[in-house]
Amino acid sequence: MLPTAELLEVATDAAALTVDLLLERIGSDLSVVEKSTSTDLVTQVDREAERLIVDRITASRPDDGIIAEEGTNVEGSSGVTWIIDPIDGTTNFVYGHPGFGVSIAAEFHGEPVVGVVGDPLNGETFTASRGGGAYRNGKPIAVSATTDPNRMLVATGFGYEPERRRAQGELVARLLADIGDIRRMGSAAVDLCSVACGRVDAYFESGLNRWDFAAGAIIAAEAGAVVSDLHGGEPSRAFVFAASPAVAPALRDLLRHLDADQI
Ligand code: LIP
């Protein structure tokens, strides 16, 4: 029997500890380091937050596997693997700009089971468990009711490599005339939670790491969103697509027509 309730409790507790750390350190003198490119940033707080989360998880579940953005990679024996981004939207965190959060997901033999995203500046904690629905601060949430594709509010994001960024920008320019508007908020985890609570109608992005979207994807799916790649498969590094069912077919057709998953 999968201890879903325990996994949700551990993830929620670890997220709460991390939110407190991020609120304490935001705006402080952060040692910012470039990773893969000049736009791919990491701070000492990312590393401290990851340590905090890993310690909280291992205190309760020492036999679980853990994969996290800042380097933690533990092979487990329980079948449960944690997928963690201690600060998704690091650039926003460095600037003190809204649009960052801690993202913690648990998978059982590769299947998503639990997702928690904590957004410190909005004071929101999003949670979901497979088959258990999606919640914001403990209250049920659901995707938007928009039906007109020409009114779709669509979130997206851009990678770090200059050529990919150029192509992603060109894609947005070609898409804009056929939707309501674009929002680029800077965190896949927060964007997916925005789909889950109806703050945007849809989100897409290519080139993400699993830790960017693992928690937000189950939260969006449990809130009623269509969550996939661009061809109905599982969301992946190639493409993450999340949309309310009413607008999903129209947006998916537009993105397929623009070869959005070939960038
Ligand atoms: C971020 C993603 C976001 C993307 C940003 C960045 P990070 O992750 O969550 O969707 O558009 O460029 O990759 O690097 O802040 O953890």
Instruction: Provide the low-confidence segments as ranges.
Output: none
The biggest beta sheet, please? Answer: 8 strands, mixed
Oligomeric state of this protein: single chain
Give the % helix.
25-40%
Portion in beta strands: 25-35%
Q: Outline, from the CA principal axes?
A: globular
List keywords for this structure.
eight-stranded mixed sheet, binds L-MYO-inositol-1-phosphate, alpha+beta, globular
Describe this entry's structure for a reader.
This protein has 263 residues and is α+β, with helices and mostly antiparallel strands. 35% of the residues lie in helices and 25% in strands. It contains 7 helices and 15 strands. It has helices spanning 4-25, 44-60, 90-95, 162-175, 188-196, 210-222, 248-257; strands at 33-34, 41-42, 65-68, 73-74, 80-88, 101-108, 111-119, 124-129, 133-136, 139-140, 153-156, 181-183, 202-205, 226-228, 240-243. The strands form 3 sheets. The chain has an 8-stranded mixed beta sheet, sandwiched between helices. A 5-stranded mixed beta sheet has the order 12-11-13-15-14, with helices on both faces. Strands 1-2 form a two-stranded antiparallel sheet. A hairpin with a 2-residue loop joins β9 and β10. α5 packs parallel to α6. The longest helix is centred in the first third of the chain and has 22 residues, at 4-25. It is globular and about 50 Å long. The mean pLDDT is 95. Bound molecules: L-MYO-inositol-1-phosphate. L-MYO-inositol-1-phosphate (LIP) binds at residues 85, 88-90, 157-158, 186-188, 205, 212.
